[in-house]
Amino acid sequence: MSLSRLALLVSTALIGIGLPMPAVAVPTVTGADSPTAVRWLQKAAAAPNQVSYHGTQIITAWGPQGASSAMFDIVHAAQQGSEISVLGSSAAPGAKAFVQRATTTGAAIDGGPLALLQATYQLVDKCCTDIIGRAAVLVEALRDDRTLAARFWIDKASGLLLQRQLFSADGKTMVRATVFTELKIESSEFIAHLPPMMPNGVEALGLGKVDNLRSQGWVCAPQLPASLTLYDVHQDTTNGSLQFSYSDGLFNVSLFEQRGALDPAAVKGFSTTETPGVYLRYGMPSYVVWSSGGIVYTLIGDLPPDQLGEVIRSFAHDVPVKLTAIQRLGTGLAKIATWLTPMGAVSAKLG
Asked: Which of 44, 96, 184, 209 is deepest in the core (most CB within 10 A)?
């Protein structure tokens, strides 16, 4: 199956806007956080459920393919959720998607679980600044070696996250930026006709069934390289495929597993890699497809290229073989997009 690049751009935007987050099991904290920094990030995590707004947001990612950008108009109602419209695209003018208001207690910052952010990085308060004409505070996330991992600009008045920058392991190379170019706080908003949160047939399993899934032969790694921790599991009850969600609090990946054999024709447009049978396409997000032991894997996420390579190398890979028509299995990318969005209607609208 094919999946439009634009649909993936919308998927990327929706990951970070008010999605429900499960409880997260976190590793031991390795550094002392600034209490002020933690309080501001907690406020930013809570703000979408308390503050309505209308704004324009740009997401940009940098990688081997160069820069990829997408612009969105966001109408957010605190008691309902967000209506997101794609801007600046002649391919799908006016395409829209909805994300319902988060209903669970797990806190997230732009898609990353706050608990994992605190556990993985040292959070530092850098005091006061201004951005898009609004008074803001700046919080930084540092790695154990003191290199810069991320910057967060948080609106003082509302607590909304105005801008986020992510950096590669050298602490200098920016790999992703999410920024509001315009923002208007609204006293109230109402969005009509919100569709279901998940497409039919997708069931939230959480972490409680991981041991059982492992006994059935699924790869349910609790940790991946680049400090990524498993924090949620979903299953498509129509075909039995699974989605494992990983994060370090900043970067997020979803690993989809489906029994079958990979049809190389299904990854037309992907690049081959130094590992035979592994197919890669950089972008926003990037995604990688391979098979091993009778399971087809699709990894989708926003990791920098070097960290993405670490994750790929941690898995076994089958050498590709010629398949019969009966053995062929597509990667299911169109279905995967509906999980990420998570609206099935988005892919249909965007082609």
From this structure: 44
Residue type, 307: Q
Residues 6+ apart with CB under 8 A from 267: 279, 289, 331
C-beta separation of 266 from 253 below 8 A? no
> Is residue 331 in some structural domain?
yes
**Cβ 53 vs Cβ 158: under 8 Å:** yes
Burial label for 73, CB within 10 Å (0-12, 13-18, 19+), is: middle
Q: Please report, as a single letter, which amino acid is at residue 264.
A: P
Is residue 15 included in any domain, yes or no? yes
Give the span between the Cα atoms of 146 and 31, in whole angstroms. 10
- Domain containing residue 291: 202-313
Tokens of 93: 């003018």
Local structure of 88: helix, strand or coil: coil
CB 331 within 8 A of CB 5: no
Domains in the chain, number: 3
- Domain containing residue 272: CATH number: 3.30.200.100
Q: Distance (Å, rounded) from C-alpha 85 to C-alpha 93?
A: 9
Q: Which of 141, 157, 186 is the last residue of a domain?
A: 186
Among 157, 124, 121, CA closest to 138:
124
CA separation for the pair 21, 102 (Å, rounded): 8
